[in-house]
Each structure stands twice: as structure tokens, then as C-alpha cells.
Amino acid sequence: MSQLPFSKDAFIESLLDPARLLPASARTDHKLVSPTEEIQRFLKKDLMVNKLNKIDQYLWLAGQPMPAKPLNYQIAISREIAVDERIDMHMVWEGSRRIHLKPLPQYLLDSQFWESHLVCKAPCCASPGEPVCQGQARSRELYKCALGLLSSYMALVQFESDFSIAQNYRLLPNTITWEMWLKLNQQLLKNNVISPGNINSRYLFGELRLSRLNKIYAIRHASVLSGYQLTYQTYGELFYDYLAPLTAATIYVALVLTAMQVGLATDRLGFNSPFQDASYGFTVFAILGPLIGVLVVGIIGSLAFINNLIVSWKFQRQQFARYELSEMRNKLP
Asked: Membrane-spanning regions, if any (predicted)?
């Protein structure tokens, strides 16, 4: 069975009601519910990194298999910290030098909460090689995801300066002190509960690059329009992202054509058949290449628009169908 990662007296007292440790509300099927109604369902959504686990074997293309750099380093290289409650975006950074970080949930610092909702008490949890039922397997994975998130903050908050940054961005609960954090880290390291076999495989990697995750998803799961997590808020941003490299390539092509034109004006190259053939081929490419590129970008934009339109239409139908069903249930005696 899995073990409690730290002793009951290591960190904070387990005096809070679970409702005080959880968010004010949660989303289930696009509607607001109380997280205390189905705590296990909430925890799976809050902690499980299913999207990243689908591409486990390719994560080395998006990041290095090592703990994340501490927060002081993130600030030193001019990365902007974006507080993001989505677990799939935790420690994911964008080309605009912005890194997403999920605040450490307060319930992960409460030993009683671990015992009640996270520690897998089945004997099979101690032996991953043995056959387990699906429910026990999910409990084991939830435990590993919780330990992984906790271990990520051990890497992010190494120094007291990191602790101050984390407190300023509300990444750590303001009820804890540096001395408490030191004590917790010492116990976790001593108990070796964050070894690679105890944490989810996603947390064997630190920061992951979003652009590469999008490419991996586009190739591996054929999701060109959605990717892992596209950041476009408008179609203008989508066109800019695709057309900017095309514009740079067009400028380079123009420089090459100018150089070829000068070369053709010389006696040495002007009568050189291979150079003339190359100039002819590149001229045709320079005419057709940008046109084809713009056409492809236009097709991608059109497909994205049509896809979003269809998804929005289906979503509104499903939502209003749920609303009508809910009203009918409320009217029943």
C-alpha cells in the first residue's frame, strides 16, 4: 500500500474541514458544483495529467528529464509567471517567455486529507507488478500524481528567495512559513517518497515547451487544429503565427533572387547553363511558393473557423438539453 508522504506533525495541523481545503466550486460537465460532493472526481480532474501521459515517450522532445529550475532562475531569465489552475499546464512555458504554474493545493499539505482521500490502502498498491482492479489502479495513479505535484514544488522552491516569490504569487498557502517548508522537504527527502517509482512519469521532466507539445500532439494524434493547448484567442493571432515565418522566408527568397539577377549579369555566370537552370527553377519557386503558403494558411484558418463553429453549435445544443432535463427533474414531485 502507498504511505503517508510526511508525518502528521511535520507540517500543518489537520484541523481544517475538507471544505476549507478545497476550492469554492468546481466544474463538472460544464456546470458549477461543490467539490465536496464528489471529492474523488474533483481530485482526478485537479491532479491527473492524462493528456501528458498520452505522449509520455515523446516528452524528452519538449523538455529535459530533470527537476524544474527554481523560481529565482525563472525570474532571472525573464520568464513571466502565469498562475494557472490547469494541471496539464503546470510547468509549461511559451515562446513569449511565460511559464504556467499551478498553485500548490492546500489539501496536499494536510496529512489527514492524504489519509482520507489520497493514500491507497490496498495491499496491491505496494506491488505495481501485481494485477489490480481498475479502481485500485486509479487510486495508485492519483497518489503518484499528488506526489509528483508536491515534488515539483520541492524543485521550484529550493531557496528562501524562491519561497518569497512563491508567496508573492500565491503559489504556496500564506499560512505556512519557511521553517515549515524546510521541515516538510527534509522529511520527504528522508522518506524517499518522491523517487521516480513513486511519482507520475510526467514529473520526471521539469519545464515543458508548449510549442513542441503542440507539434507532438499534431503528429501523434493528428490534432493540427487543436494541438496540446493552442493559445490563439483570435483568428488574427493564428494568421500572424503562421504568416510571420512565411514573411521571413519571402524576404530571404527576394534576397536570393536579387543575388541571382546580379550573377546572371556577369560573364562567368550569365553563360553558365547549370546556374541558368537553377535561376529558372528558383524563380518559379519564388512565384508559386508564397502563393501556396498563403493558400495553405487560408485553408487552415478556414478549417479552424468551421471546426469552432461546429463545436460551438453542438455544445450549445448539449448544454440547453441538459438545462431542460434539469428543469424537468426539478418539476417532478
From this structure: 242-264, 284-310
Determine the Cα–Cα distance for residues 257 and 260; give it in Å rounded to an integer: 5
Largest CA distance in the chain: 97
Distances (CA, A) of 107 to 21, 32, 113, 142, 201: 5, 20, 6, 14, 22
What's the pLDDT tens digit per position in 185-214?
999 998 888 888 889 999 999 999 998 998
SS3 82: strand
State residue 221 phi and psi, 5-degree precision. -115, 15
**Coil, strand, or helix at residue 28?**
strand
| Grid coordinates belonging to 168 | 508573492
Q: Where are the domains of the chain?
A: 18-220, 235-331
The C-alpha atoms of residue 231 and residue 223 are separated, in whole angstroms, by 14
Amino acid of residue 100: H
Q: Quote the CA–CA distance of 11 and 33 in Å, as a whole number.
A: 30
Overall pTM > 0.85: no
